[in-house]
Amino acid sequence: MDLEKIHKEIEEWHSGDKDKLEEFRLKFISRKGVFGDLFSNIKNIPNEAKKEYGQKINVLKNAAQEKFQFLIEKVSDGKSDAGEYKDTDFTLPGSGTDIGNRHPLKIAQKDIVEIFQKIGFDLSEGPEIETDWYNFTALNFPENHPAREMQDTFFVEKDPDMVLRTHTSSVQIRVMESTKPPIRTLSPGRVYRNEAISARSHCVFYQAEGLYIDKNVSFKDLKQTMLYFAKEMFGKNTKIRLRPSYFPFTEPSAEMDVYWGLETEVDKKITKGTGWLEILGCGMVDPNVLENCNIDPKEYSGFAFGMGIERIALLKYQIPDIRLFTENDTRFLKQFKSLI
Ligand code: DAH
Fold first, then answer.
1. What architecture is domain 104-336?
2. d(CA 42, CA 129)
3. Which end of the chain is less packed: N or C, by CB atoms within 10 Å?
């Protein structure tokens, strides 16, 4: 048997497809193939040439195995090179490329941002590690006031003046300090609270804060803006209600619910039997807060609101457990398709 010829055949073999691969295996890898014959031929080789012959077929065998490994990888990758085009059937459907998905929280955030951009809000951001001034004091949380207990705070051990921001309301202050009214801004971002992780709450989550400051802004502007948002987000028949509430930085303050329905057992459970679900806090910016930012409360007024992005996404996509957002289970993540 001509070893040179076998060598050439191995070298020039093109993978093409699975059948060709099997043909290669039977011919060059299987014990019943070419090498079986070559090895059993050793006995016919004169003694003085046996060693050289043995070495040659071992080299060939290794080359065959390397080539086989290479062909397997090519077939499973679906790749081909110019030499293989003659074996490729271009009429077969392509295998397609997997593109990534956006994270459902980022899709919800993008939706929120776009809704407010349509009515002239710009975007702003601030740091996640904040000073006490921006997170609390300027927002009218007096020192040692029990209102600070509303938000379980992570403090920075080495600097008692620094906290992980508990809300994006801190960005309101940064914007008002640096911008002259009129102001219309939305500040999405990550916030932190020292809370146990459960199906409904997490110690790291996202909020979007809104702020509108101008002359003669009134509560009815707030209410109409919130109604517009709810309809854009959840559908044009969405109903809202505002319940009186308390936040140090707004006066009067309210919490906003959207009507979810009371038809199914699940509806009853998630709305605690009321049919309504709370989605955000809001109110008229407290004059003390405006003064803290050198804005004259006699000339300007405004409203602010803050919402949890997880909450909005849970509602919009009917997701039962907030922890799914951070588990990175691709079976969950793949369900959310968004082109941009
Ligand atoms: N910062 C509040 C929180 O995290 C939410 C909030 C309520 C923001 C009322 C506001 C507001 O701007 O006016 O619970």
1. 2-Layer Sandwich (3.30)
2. 77
3. C
